Every structure is written in C-alpha cells, then in structure tokens.
Amino acid sequence: MNQPYLHPAQQINQDSAPKETLYVTGLNDKIRLEDLKFVLYILFSQFGEVLQIVMKKTQKLRGQAFIVFQNITYATNAKSALSGMMVYEKPLIIEFAYKKSVIFDRMEGKFYYKQKQQKELQPNIPTDLIKERKQKKIEDKLNNNTVFNQGEVNNVLLIESLPSFVTENMLSELFRQYPGYSLIKLINARGLAFVEYQNDDQATVALKGLSNFKITPECQLKVKYAKK
C-alpha cells in the first residue's frame, strides 16, 4: 500500500538543525516561475554559492522553493538576513529543510542551477547572445584595471548591457531592496534600464551596492548615474 502524500510543510520542523537546504514558502504564485527563480537566485546567492533551486508548478507545490547551498554557513546567513523580506509583495518565510532526501524524492524532477543554467534560469537565450557574453567576460577582465566613469551624481541610475531575458519585474525586485526606490523603466530592445530613487543619496547607496553585481555567473550589472 502506498504511503500517503505528505505536503512539504509537514516535512519541515522549525527546530530542525541547520542544513545546506532552505525551505521557502509564502512566494507569490501569480508570478512566472522563471522570474521567481531568477529573483531567488539573485537574493540567495549573495550569501554563497547556490547549487540547486527546486520549484514546481503543481498546485500542491506552488509558492514554495527549496534552496540548496554549498554549505551550512551560507544557508544560515541567508536565512537570517532574508527571512521576512518582501518579494513580489509577499514576505519570505524561510526554514531549514528537515529531511533533504525525503523532500527531493517527492519532487518530480529537480532544477540544478549549474547543469541547467541556460535552460531553466535563462530561458530562450540565443546562441549569439551566449557568444557575446563570452566576449564580454574577456572585455570585463581587461576593464578591471580601468576606472569606470559613473557620471554626475543624481537620483536616477542607468543600467547598461542587460541580457534580453531580464524583465522589468526582475530588476524591480533587485533595486527595491534599497530605500527610496521609486520606479524603473526597462528599454529591452536597447538593453537599458533607468531606476529612479527619491534622492541622490539613496541612488548612490544602490549604485555602490549593485555595481558589478552578478545577475548570472557570466553577467555583471553595469550601473552608473543617468545623464540629466
């Protein structure tokens, strides 16, 4: 006789010992799965290497994610810093997974960030764009020794050379982490975005925090002040 299905929430114990795997609930299930994965990767990878993100579209598993870090320290730091953070207008509820093997056995398929990066996290990326990224990676190394002109200080930031898969929602969730965020305008055809803050100081904090931030292992944000 088959064992009854256990909802993942029943497999999590708030007092469970720290593990490499975090169980995240409360996600806005009205947002595209690809956008959620992207934002979660950006948020959680700030604390260490993310090896795996597991999410499903099924009714029983919607609004949930399992984040697997390289080690327990990374997972612990991420849990402490991100618990309660608003993502797509809902607070993150984060616990340590109770039994990682049981959880993954009950998931029909897994998402491996490293193995399926192109397919899952960055859908529909054309081959020529991948080649461009490799070239940009070489150029970035050459430019590391040069001083980047960030322009005249003001409350509007300009983000350049954005990959085509990036959406306005993705960028919004990233930049709204900083106080004073007002709005964002993405010009996808040109790979540009403008982000407005309430004042110059708030824009400067965001610029310093997100300049050269890796939105993927091969793509860094190029942020500077927009021309007035």
UniProtKB/TrEMBL annotation:
Biological process according to GO: mRNA processing; RNA splicing
RRM domain residues: 20-99, 155-228
Keyword Zinc in annotation: no
Keyword Repeat: yes
Record's subcellular location: Nucleus
GO molecular function per UniProt: RNA binding
Main location: nucleus
Annotated keywords: mRNA processing, mRNA splicing, Nucleus, Repeat, Ribonucleoprotein, RNA-binding, Spliceosome
Domain of life of the native organism: Eukaryota
GO cellular component: small nuclear ribonucleoprotein complex; spliceosomal complex
InterPro entries: RRM_dom
UniProt-listed PANTHER family: U1 SMALL NUCLEAR RIBONUCLEOPROTEIN A/U2 SMALL NUCLEAR RIBONUCLEOPROTEIN B
Family that this chain belongs to: Belongs to the RRM U1 A/B'' family.
Protein name per its UniProtKB record: RRM domain-containing protein
Phylogenetic classification of the source organism: Eukaryota, Sar, Alveolata, Ciliophora, Intramacronucleata
